[in-house]
Write a structure and sequence with these properties.
about 525 residues, mainly alpha, Rossmann fold, Arc Repressor Mutant, subunit A, 3-stranded parallel β-sheet, 3-stranded antiparallel β-sheet, 12 strands, elongated
């Protein structure tokens, strides 16, 4: 894993950093101290179930795991490796709602995902298509990882030795899992899921016999009733997911894997199975789940929430990484309205970083996002301010917007400020898709009209180049003089009457960016002043 050089002061600060990523790294370090015999790289793993299109929550796990991996690099000289594992040998259980060619998928229900045709027609299988989507996104973030496919690991024999350990400890595994199941499910449960030689389906059937010496299990074909004996190795079987998780930890020697809060019991049971077959469960972290706009859990089969491509239409990958870093144990809404806030917070953290001491830098999200080497970026206009500039100027032309920006930030150009230029493009997209359709102007009340008329007149008295703070003070003064007991009501009136929205930027700074004359024209237009 490539990281920035670390100073002795920063390494010392890492030992006591309050960042959650360093808490996890220190926990992992203690694990390795208990396992002096372990050799090779320290293995971090993330798992992915490619039964639906990848969604941002999936990649949040990779981003957060990478942050722990990087934090660990300050505390230990041990090499590390990140494995991104795809459970692509799972049987397709249902057709996701948001995919093309549902009939094609329906006809292949029950088969391993890597044996289901690709409904998009671009890859050899549905599993391969979604694996490619996963890797494309990871590559876009610049993650350093090794991709592993369950199908490849099972069929190549990489898991054979550990699968035999599961078979040898079959009764122990059953004793762990059976008490957690409903009575009806207990009758057919087996940790081994044979891939039917006749139909190609992954079968959930009772195992009638096991033969450790031969390395086989026997079951009755659910359609023909015939007794079928298959090896547990070579891809003839896969494991139920809790047993599969434990087997994978053992086979690969995984040291760290995080999981959603809804999987706490599953992590516990998989840990018990891992110990039963002679392995040591990894250290882990339970993160809260993402919610959609209705505060419902995001599901890849439902396709609710935001897709990867949607976020990247409106904001940078770094702003998404910030969303992943912030408060991982807190349930957060992952929807379009969180984007502007995360964009502006990212640049605020980036701006603060150079002036911070070592301990503060390690708690700054941009240290974790950029692996210890945040770039120096000058972005003089916030995302929210750009959104309102697009709105007030009634233009979605980047060159028009740059005319305002260049006047506000003297001499700034797209060539000199490529990050800001990207931000302008994101703002135009976001405004067009979300702000513009929701705009709703209202007429001012008589009291509001009187205050706006005074603002229109007083702005004319200000000299060119008056800064946003002075303008903001003037706006405060006018609000107080017109009897607004709560000045928030005055600013809300400015936003609703002039911009057609209930919230907006610090208005004095907006006037500085948009221009005094342009703001007066905006007021005059809304009040029909002669």
């Amino acid at each position: 894993m490539s990281t920035a050089p670390h100073s002795p002061e920063m390494i010392e600060a890492a030992k006591t950093s309050k960042s959650w990523a360093f808490d996890e790294a220190r926990k992992l370090l203690k694990r390795l101290e208990r396992m002096p015999e372990k050799e090779g790289p320290v293995l971090f793993e993330t798992g992915y179930g490619p039964s639906g299109l990848p969604h941002i929550g999936t990649f949040g796990e990779v981003a957060r795991t990478t942050m722990v991996q990087h934090a660990f690099s300050l505390l230990s000289d041990r090499p590390t490796q990140l494995i991104c594992f795809s459970d692509d040998m799972d049987g397709l259980r249902k057709v996701p709602d948001n995919l093309p060619n549902p009939d094609l998928l329906q006809a292949n229900l029950g088969k391993p995902l890597t044996a289901v045709p690709d409904p998009f027609g671009t890859h050899d299988s549905f599993g391969a298509h979604n694996n490619a989507r996963l890797q494309a996104f990871l590559d876009r973030f610049g993650f350093d990882y090794q991709f592993k496919s369950a199908t490849a690991c099972y069929t190549s024999g990489e898991f054979d030795e550990t699968l035999m350990k599961v078979l040898a400890n079959y009764d122990k595994v059953m004793q762990i899992i059976l008490p957690t199941l409903r009575e009806e499910r207990r009758k057919t449960y087996s940790p081994f899921l044979p891939v039917c030689p006749r139909s190609g389906h992954v079968l959930q059937v009772a195992v009638t016999a096991t033969d450790v010496a031969a390395g086989t299990i026997t079951y009755n074909d659910p359609e023909t009733g015939e007794a079928v004996t298959v090896p547990v190795t070579g891809g003839a079987c896969k494991l139920q997911w809790k047993a599969d998780w434990a087997m994978r930890w053992t086979a690969l020697g995984v040291d760290y894997e995080m999981a959603g809060k809804d999987l706490i019991d599953s992590v516990r049971q998989s840990g018990r199975i891992c110990r039963a077959i002679g392995g040591t469960p990894p250290e882990g972290f339970s993160y809260e789940l993402f919610l959609d706009e209705n505060a419902e859990k995001i599901s890849k089969s439902k396709g609710n929430g935001i897709t990867i491509d949607e976020w990247l239409r409106y904001a940078s990958p770094e702003s998404l990484a910030l969303f992943m870093y912030q408060a991982p144990r807190k349930a957060k809404r992952l929807y379009f309205d969180v984007i502007p806030k995360n964009v502006d917070e990212y640049y605020a953290h980036l701006s603060n970083y150079p002036g911070q001491d070592e301990a503060q830098k390690l708690q700054n999200p941009v240290w974790h996002i950029h692996r210890g080497a945040p770039p120096l970026e000058d972005v003089p206009v916030s995302f929210n301010m750009l959104l309102n500039l697009v709105s007030a100027s009634n233009s979605e032309d980047a060159s028009v917007l740059w005319g305002f920006i260049s006047r506000y930030a003297k001499g700034a150009t797209p060539e000199d400020h490529p990050q800001l230029d990207e931000l302008v493009g994101y703002a135009i997209n976001y405004f067009h898709d979300f702000v513009k359709p929701a705009k709703s102007f209202r007429d001012p009340t008589p009291d509001e009209r009187a205050a706006l008329e005074e603002l229109h007149a007083r702005l004319a008295e200000l000299p060119a180049g008056t800064d946003g703070t002075q303008i903001q003070n003037l706006i405060y003064e006018i609000g107080k003089s017109h009897g607004f007991e709560n000045l928030r009501d005055w600013f809300k009136a400015l936003y609703e009457v002039l911009l057609g929205q209930s919230q907006g930027p610090r208005f004095g700074n907006f006037v500085e960016l948009y221009g005094i004359d342009e703001t007066r024209a905006l007021i005059a237009g809304r009040l029909n002043l002669g």
